Amino acid sequence: MRRENGSFGLGIELNGSSNSNNQTALTIDVEESTEKRIERLIRENQVIIFSKRSCCMCHVMKRLLYTLGANPTVIEIEENEMKSSLPATQNSGGESGGGGGGVGPVVYVGGGRVGGLESLMALHLSGELVVKLREVGAAV
Domain Glutaredoxin spans what residues (predicted)? Predict the structure, then answer.
């Protein structure tokens, strides 16, 4: 449904439930720039991963977060889109997803950049990841 301000409204059913109490509103502003949309997604989601579908490191990152009880929002981006879409300050840091270089997966928790798989694993091994996930209400 198109609204007067140029945005679209869409209801999404969560967990296959048809109960209207479990629906989340998703607003897409067609005039919003890609950079602004990415910044908004990072702000609005407790845990968000910018991932590549064919990346094994992205899969490991997702599995770790799911195992810890976090249900991250996953945005699948192609390699060329990841390099051009994420602002330089967000996709830099020297971490790649492995298997051929390039920009690897990037995870944000509570609006703050954690980084790639290497940074996420370091945070997990230090015991700080679960604490951080609990602080933002993303883990049980």
Answer: 47-87
